[in-house]
Write a structure and sequence with these properties.
Structural class: alpha+beta
Radius of gyration: 17 Å
Order of helices and strands: EEEEEHHHHEEEHHEHE
Number of helices: 7
Largest sheet: 5 strands, antiparallel
Oligomer: single chain
Length: about 170
Amino acid sequence: MTYTVWMDGTRIGETAFELSHGADRRGGVFHPTALGLSVLPGITAMGPALLAAGQMCRERGIDTEDPDLDVESATRTVFETPEGDRVLAAAKLIARLELHDPSGELVRWESILISDFNDLAAMAGTDSSADDPEPAKRASESPVRYFISAKFSGGRRGWFRRSRGQSVS
């Protein structure tokens, strides 16, 4: 069963959402269209941007797990940084995405992330503790480059029963 991803009325890729994790979470290999390949760098920038923002928070002593955190102040601080700007830029593109089920029906999502394994491998390659000196080279040779994960909203439980995703939980 193929689910399609659209941006501004144009299909940018598809997935089978072959993996499930709970009743409202799915993941799978993302197969971009030619146009999708041109917009993916901005969309896949979200993962690295979030990791960079998390690192910046730790460096500035912002504990996002602190129940007494002044969320408004912390949010202002984060989004006044280059790391926060990168998160916002990716979020603006992701907000334009639509997901459609095999019948063409719009699927409401709460969160969606498309990751580029080459980006993640390159980030891991900068880590001096990595055992593999060439993770980016290995990733570029992999048959899977893009992965999509989503959390759905709006009670789509019947959708999950119809699909044949492999449970990973």
